[in-house]
Specification:
Layout: H1 3-24, H2 29-39, E1 44-51, E2 56-63, H3 67-75, H4 84-88, E3 94-97, H5 98-101, H6 104-107, H7 111-120, E4 125-134, E5 137-145, H8 150-161, H9 165-178, E6 194-196, E7 201-203
Antiparallel strand pairs: 1-2, 1-5, 3-4, 4-5, 6-7
Amino acid sequence: MSSSERRLASDVAELKTTISAAACDVNRWTDVAQTLQSMIPDSKILFQVVEKEPTTVRQVIYSGFSDQTIEHYGAHYWKVNPWTKGVNEMEMSSFKRASELYPNRLLRETEFFADLVGPERGCDDATALKFAAHKDRYALLAVHHDFRHHEQTHARGKALLQSLVPGLRTALEINRLTNPFFHLEQNLIIPAHILLRRSSWRTRLV
């Protein structure tokens, strides 16, 4: 086994341990995002739970993005996210580049890019993984990065994540079974009214 293969195996093992911890304690999902970001140079991690009809972002957890960017995203810009339609149509357990979801040349002409993505910098491309779903709700993990560095970032992110999809899905299901907020609606894979933040998890009923 080469040194790069040993490093990858070690990183995957660390992520598996962190995901297992998140299965037992929902507060540890922040650790999953932060650990993944630390393993992918110049990345920004965004984990979302989205309801398709009507499209609504239910939860967000992140690492690497500024708090202000996420606050603006939660207040308005998720509603005009040009990548959303393509993500809604993704197959389960599949990886897609952001430019496959919406052309990069058109992205740069949008309000979403001008007011949110551009000022944040280093997040105008992404590798998206759609890894869990129930009814009209799905979970998405996106490794954002600079458009110019996509090939190496995509390869690294996919190498880390492709064997972790079952573990990610199982961890959410365990959360559903052990967290009382899952009882708001039967058989949801995650609680519908928890807003996840990088520094802390706040619970709010709506």
